[in-house]
């Protein structure tokens, strides 16, 4: 099913103009005066699940086919098998670029969290810090500059105190194709997802990157394609490069799901960072979250849901989301939540003052108190004329018992929202307080029932035997 222009899930520019006007001081803010520019379309190719290693082993080969440019944005960066895979990819790109001759292949890497020292002492501005080639090996675990002579490589980090990490993760290849993974360059063996995109939506990613990450006007334009006598990289014989780091050919949580090939109505959803966490410990009403495009769209979807809401999120501590879910339950919408009980607990306490477990317990308690719920204390006469609340199902991720090796995911890190089996939102944003109030995030909404069904089916398949029922 594809949405019509009258779909209740769509927001027009008139709906959002007043809210987005508050974003005029955000960085980036190019959409604030005309939110309709975020409306686009996309061709979705594949949805991949697995650990971070599984995801990178699936998508990094596509980077080796780059002709002009690779833009690689992530949040957390650590020495890991994923980093080894990326290093091998960069070596292969460099060797092929040198063999082709001519201009170097441009590679731009952006990240936010490398170490506590980096976050405390780097320049705390949106311009961030750019690192010289002499730091690539020791600081980032990358190949030496002598191994990457065929690349025009720059690495930049941005972090702003106290809590503003740049949380998006995306990869753009030649400004023709985008990969949107949930994983970082990290050692964590977590359950992740990634969607592969092309079409007009790619220009949205390029615009977002150029407005925030690009160092200069030179970076804003794509390098020219190779011209005679230089052959394309893909026409060259495979170079002799170091053997790649061994990886599992198919992890226990790895799936590849083909998605419908038609154009899909799509919304690009940036969510800029904010320095003020808006803590309000002495008020009973939840604080208002910054009206970013991502926050606005998610609240709109939750408010306008008619039948079902499916959520998979690492953590769930955002007050506006919890309030919206309770409201949806009151209106008879079925809510299914899959999250983690013990993921980044210290971070939750620092940024939210609570934990996911506490928040979902409170949500369950409030659901039980709703009229018509199975445990409601209202008598039959008091229930007359009231709408029966929707069902609430809460599950915690747990590793599958009996699966040996590090390939088994230990936590769920996927960020996924599906509303009414029609609208799918993927990206970097968790449904926790940090993502909603301080971190930079990025999401994409797809208005297509077939996409929603195939993505949900792939996730359900992997979650079998990996969920522990908490409520409902």
UniProtKB/TrEMBL annotation:
<dbReference type="InterPro" id="IPR025202">
    <property type="entry name" value="PLD-like_dom"/>
</dbReference>
<feature type="domain" description="PLD phosphodiesterase">
    <location>
        <begin position="413"/>
        <end position="435"/>
    </location>
</feature>
<feature type="compositionally biased region" description="Polar residues">
    <location>
        <begin position="1"/>
        <end position="10"/>
    </location>
</feature>
<protein>
    <recommendedName>
        <fullName>PLD phosphodiesterase domain-containing protein</fullName>
    </recommendedName>
</protein>
<dbReference type="GO" id="GO:0032049">
    <property type="term" value="P:cardiolipin biosynthetic process"/>
</dbReference>
<feature type="region of interest" description="Disordered">
    <location>
        <begin position="224"/>
        <end position="256"/>
    </location>
</feature>
<feature type="region of interest" description="Disordered">
    <location>
        <begin position="1"/>
        <end position="32"/>
    </location>
</feature>
<dbReference type="Pfam" id="PF13091">
    <property type="entry name" value="PLDc_2"/>
</dbReference>
<dbReference type="InterPro" id="IPR001736">
    <property type="entry name" value="PLipase_D/transphosphatidylase"/>
</dbReference>
<dbReference type="GO" id="GO:0030572">
    <property type="term" value="F:phosphatidyltransferase activity"/>
</dbReference>
<feature type="domain" description="PLD phosphodiesterase">
    <location>
        <begin position="162"/>
        <end position="189"/>
    </location>
</feature>
């Amino acid at each position: 099913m594809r949405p019509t222009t009258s779909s209740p899930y769509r927001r027009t520019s008139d709906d959002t103009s007043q809210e987005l006007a508050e974003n005029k001081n955000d960085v980036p803010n190019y959409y604030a005066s005309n939110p309709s520019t975020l409306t686009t379309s996309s061709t979705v190719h594949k949805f991949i699940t697995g650990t971070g290693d599984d995801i990178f082993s699936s998508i990094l080969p596509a980077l080796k086919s780059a002709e002009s440019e690779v833009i690689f944005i992530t949040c957390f960066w650590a020495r890991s098998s994923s980093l080894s895979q990326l290093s091998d990819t960069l070596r292969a790109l460099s060797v092929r670029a040198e063999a082709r001759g001519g201009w170097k292949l441009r590679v731009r890497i952006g990240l936010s969290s490398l170490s506590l020292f980096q976050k405390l002492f780097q320049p705390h501005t949106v311009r961030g810090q750019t690192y010289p080639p002499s730091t690539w090996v020791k600081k980032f675990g990358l190949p030496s500059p002598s191994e990457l002579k065929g690349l025009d490589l720059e690495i930049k980090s941005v972090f702003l105190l106290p809590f503003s990490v740049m949380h998006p993760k995306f990869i753009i290849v030649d400004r023709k194709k985008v990969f949107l993974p949930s994983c970082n360059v990290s050692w964590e063996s977590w359950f992740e997802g990634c969607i592969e995109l092309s079409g007009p939506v790619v220009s949205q990613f390029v615009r977002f990157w150029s407005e925030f990450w690009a160092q200069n006007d030179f970076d804003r334009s794509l390098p020219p394609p190779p011209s005679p006598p230089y052959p394309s990289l893909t026409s060259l014989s495979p170079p002799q490069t170091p053997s790649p780091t061994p990886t599992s050919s198919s992890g226990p949580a790895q799936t590849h799901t083909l998605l419908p090939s038609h154009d899909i109505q799509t919304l690009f959803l940036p969510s800029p960072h904010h320095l003020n966490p808006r803590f309000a410990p002495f008020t009973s009403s939840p604080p208002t979250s910054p009206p970013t495009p991502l926050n606005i769209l998610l609240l709109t979807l939750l408010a306008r849901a008619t039948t079902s809401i499916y959520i998979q999120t690492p953590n769930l501590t955002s007050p506006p989301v919890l309030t919206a879910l309770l409201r949806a339950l009151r209106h008879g919408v079925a809510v299914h939540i899959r999250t983690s009980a013990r993921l980044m607990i210290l971070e939750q306490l620092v940024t939210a003052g609570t934990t996911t477990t506490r928040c979902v317990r409170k949500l369950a308690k409030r659901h039980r108190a709703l009229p018509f719920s199975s445990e409601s204390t209202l008598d039959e006469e008091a229930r007359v004329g009231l709408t029966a609340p929707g069902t609430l199902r809460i599950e915690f991720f747990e590793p599958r018992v009996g699966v040996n090796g590090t390939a088994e995911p230990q936590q769920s890190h996927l960020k996924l929202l599906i509303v009414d089996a029609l609208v799918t939102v993927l990206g970097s944003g968790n449904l926790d307080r940090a993502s909603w109030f301080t971190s930079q995030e990025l999401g994409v909404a797809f208005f297509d029932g077939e996409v929603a069904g195939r993505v949900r089916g792939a996730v359900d398949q992997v979650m079998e035997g990996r969920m522990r029922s908490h409520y409902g």
